[in-house]
Specification:
Elements (H helix, E strand, L loop, with lengths): L1 H17 L4 H7 L11 H4 L3 H15 L9 E4 L4 E7 H11 L5 H13 L3 E3 L13 E4 L14 H13 L9 H13 L4 H16 L3 H18 L13 H6 L3 H16 L5 H15 L21 H6 L7 H6 L4 H6 L1 H13 L3 H13 L4 H16 L11 H13 L7 H21 L1 H8 L23
Antiparallel strand pairs: 1-2, 2-4, 3-4
Helix pairs in contact: 1-9, 5-6, 7-8, 7-9, 18-19, 18-21, 20-21
Length: 470
Amino acid sequence: MLGASFCSNRRQNSMAHRNSRRSDSTSSTTNRFPPEGTTNEKDEDNLDHFIYKKMESILERMQDPHTGVIVRTVKSFMSKIPSVFTGADLISWILRNLDVDDTTEALHVAHLMGAHGYVFPIDDHILTVKNDGAYYRFQTPCFWPSRCSEPENTDYAVYLCKRTMQNKQRLELADYEAENLARLQKMFSRKWEFIFIQAEAQAKVDKKRDKLERKVLDSQERAFWDVHRPAPGCVNTTDVDIKKTYRAVKPRQINGRIEHLRRQIERRKIKVSKVAESYLSYFEQYMEFDPFITPPEPSNPWISDNTDHWEQESTTKDIPQRRVKRWSFSVRELLKDNAGREHFRRFLEKEFSAENLKFWEACQKLKFTAQNDVETMVQEIYTEYLAPGACDPVNVDCKVAETVKRRITEDPDRYCFDQAEDHIYQLMKNDSYNRYLRSDMYKEFLGGTKKKPTRSIIPKLPSLSIGGGP
């Protein structure tokens, strides 16, 4: 109520002097502080407006006369300090009434409210809150950030000029404020007389107020300018962030986007029947390899005394048919099985393309090599498989080869062969792997039989004896 009357008198006082000035000056400063309960149209598009509303809802709970922070008038040595509370009281209230776990988080919440000017210390320009016995005060609603547009330098000049007219120690200008006043006086030298008249009129109105009321209003106005014109080293929470402004959108645009995404989620791009069919097919394919459904053969050596599993891993003899069958699921299943990879290598040797598998294995080994050995191994792989005149050249196009060569020259690392490795992997997957599955070599291995030797069509010649014959 005190803040509302202060703002109303200030506007009336200012308008009385502005009527004698030019109309452009009137339009620029008439609606500096909007009445309580109003919101500028510009604030509706401000991304910070929603943050302000959340802070103000908490502040209204703090100012509740029954359940809020206890505000009292403290007696000092020769005077009274009206409408104050301690930082410890504020932190205690936050811990009791908000979803806050510890004192550190409560201090952070209080500091954010102080940085935006909703709560301020009565004797300091630094807008922060500490958990101690220092005195703080609530800001009047007409000075809340959500209800005030960004003030102009002329208003700041009027405020500083008025402070110089009030000959009181507590209202003396700080060093940075005196520097700002000198800079503004130089900037507005042509209309400084108008600024001085406004400041003088406001100072006369302030003198007519009650002493305690004047103390409260002076501290609230000072806190308002500490938010919008902070002391050096303090963060200006009212600055416009270019990135934040670029990302800012109106609430209706956000709601439209949310509705669009909700419709996209509800719309099924794949039929449920197709998904179920794919899942059943995958389950049927891997069912016999699931140890929870089908007991593994041989049994796990870690839970039994049978070590056949380790012996089969070291040799390609006596491999279960079920394991060989799994090689036909994908080239990945084939290559991750040591026995399958060895069998596939022998097939590639017959087709004179074993260098593809060797190159892929070398690239896989490179990714797990110690960092000190990476550069040496990169050069060895490039010399053996990709360099001009390589002993085991792999079939990659010139574009991939140039890319790999450039990466090796600029920064040889464990991933410089990725493009060539992917190219060779796709070549084995789409070409060599399909031929391997159709080959007699795999089919015989799957069936557990060996190819019988073919009979020679050349008749056996009788042995000839030289001499001594009958």
